[in-house]
Amino acid sequence: MAIEVEEVKRIAKLAHIKLNEDEITKFAKQTQQILEFFDELKTQSDSLDKNWRPDILGKSTLEREDIVIPPTPVEKTISLAPEKSGSAFQVPKIIE
Amino acid sequence: METSLSSSLKAWQIAEKCKRDHNQIDPMINFFIDRNVRYKDVLNTHLYFDVQDIYQQVEKLKSQAYEHLPLAFVPVLIKDNICTENIPTTCASKILEDYRPPYSATVIERLKQAGAIIFGKLNCDEFAMGSSNENSAYGPVLNPWDKEYVPGGSSGGSAAAVSAGLCPIALGSDTGGSIRQPASYCGILGYKPSYGLVSRFGLIAFASSLDQIGPMTTDALDAALLSDVIMGHDPKDSTSLKSGSPSWFQTLKELKESEINLKGTTIGVVSEFFAAGIDSEVNACLQENIKKLSELGATIKNVSLKSLKNSISTYYVIATAEASANLARYDGIRFGFRADSHEGKKSLKEMYANTRTQGFGDEVKRRIFLGTYVLSSGYKDAYYTKATRMRQVIKDDFLAAFSAVDFLVGPTAPTTAFKLGEKNKDPVSMYLNDIYTIAVNLAGLPALSLPCGINSLGLPIGMQFIGKPGDDFQILKGAYVYEQATGWHEHHKPKL
């Protein structure tokens, strides 16, 4: 199955990654090679129930006791932000 | 036995010496500092190294009661995808260039409580994605055995550092072979524990259902010692098993001469591991070593894992899908690199895309892209859902094989280390290199690679033991018995 240039652009947009023309061509070619490889999965059959789901039939997640512990201080978290204003993360304007 | 200062000292010997005579502490620490300074740039192993920080840790430990600490004054190097509070943790990525985590990983806390000295942070493939360490934003690590060759990946810095004697023990992480394959390429022991035995809290996530932190050491005893320290239930990791810390080091140390053999152990030889694609020298070496295991008392049995042929595609669908979700957090807002200032004319979405485009390297982008593709509407059932089903088939296949054997043996990788630049233009060929290691992660099994031979180019060959889920001690004991019988690991070191 060939992957079209438009499809590469659509997926890149979903992934929030910009690709230039050369990269689009390269990704289309490499993705196609990898997908051809993945296609072997389509022909594999298994004897699992058709409604089988790993998250339901697998081990249940352990729950921890509901104990309050001190969180990371806000200042420490905010100090890591590339741009901040007081106790808030600063982002480009969202609403005009 | 009085061993003078040497890069061959084991972690337990260093701790014993320092605890017995406090005059040994400074010479020991300085010996390893000098060795790190001498080789770190030659091999490009380190991403962080601060001598003052090391001395501060040493002085702090000296003022405490350290007599009972198992790793007192032992230098430990850490793969740079494991968080260390206030110390740079880059994942070998530009996107985390200046990131200093506000907390330490549970494994780091446990190492410190055990008296270990965190000597620095090690280079790896960006976000642990790669099999050659060529995907680091800070340049590739070189193989200490021959600097024209890759050290393997993604824990290439950890493998090269231990192999070159810069520290006796290091931590790596293994999502599809990232501890075992570089251990094999650099001639050391790399052990990936059963999923859930080591807390992942503070391990920067690549593929959460596959990631596992593990020891990289020169022998099984040190791997046991390090496991005793880092293992045990952690409420901060919801996939952490409710088990206590083991005492494998003591158990191995106390084995009687008559118990150091493989009598009563059945070892399965996976026929699919020796099919097309395996290098002839690796094959011959493994056959020779399987004979040795038999001479040590093991019963050798052939087993077949039919689903193994689908493990690479299954793995790369699941791993990239999880990676695309895990790496969505790198958006330039809360931490890490940001491309555009808020004052510019760029929109929020454009800032996201510019940050990620400039911050991530090629392989990371490729995997995020693939993961987004296999999870996107119209493709999810054909790829992701199918792969999760195949994963269960692979697990069941292993469990069936384990009904007749105690553990499995095979090569760790189809070849020895390859040359820098040999495979990095062809992603599929690089992915195929993981054929013997990735099924283990899909099934959550314990496995280790130990050095067992050298090829005609003088490069090390690794042998892999794969254990039953939770039966990690069995493979560590197997490695210990092999080491005691052959002494291979002591007699073959890289000439730097």
Relevant terms:
heterodimer; A: Histone, subunit A; two-stranded antiparallel ribbon; B: 496 residues; alpha/beta; 11-stranded mixed sheet
Description:
The complex is a heterodimer of chains A (96) and B (496). Chain A has 96 residues and is mostly helical. Chain A contains four helices and two strands. Chain A has a domain at 5-43: Orthogonal Bundle (Histone, subunit A), CATH 1.10.20. Helices cover 40% and strands 4% of the residues of chain A. The model of chain A has no long low-confidence stretch (mean pLDDT 87). Chain B has an eleven-stranded mixed β-sheet with strand order 1-3-2-4-6-5-10-11-9-7-8, with helices on both faces. In chain B, strand 7, helix 9 and strand 8 (299-303) form a beta-alpha-beta unit. Chain B starts with 10 loop residues before the first helix and ends in a 5-residue tail after the last helix. Chains A and B meet through helix 1 and helix 2 of A and helix 10, helix 11, helix 12, helix 13 and helix 14 of B.
Secondary structure elements and pairings:
The complex is a heterodimer of chains A (96) and B (496).
Chain A: H1 5-14, H2 21-38, H3 54-57, H4 74-79, E1 84-85, E2 88-89
Antiparallel strand pairs in A: 1-2
Chain B: H1 11-20, H2 25-43, E1 46-48, H3 51-62, E2 75-79, H4 106-113, E3 117-122, H5 156-163, E4 169-173, H6 180-186, E5 189-192, E6 213-217, H7 220-230, H8 248-253, E7 266-270, H9 280-295, E8 299-303, H10 311-326, H11 348-359, H12 362-375, H13 381-402, E9 407-411, H14 427-432, H15 438-443, E10 447-454, E11 460-467, H16 472-486, H17 488-491
Helix pairs in contact in B: 5-6, 7-16, 10-12, 10-13
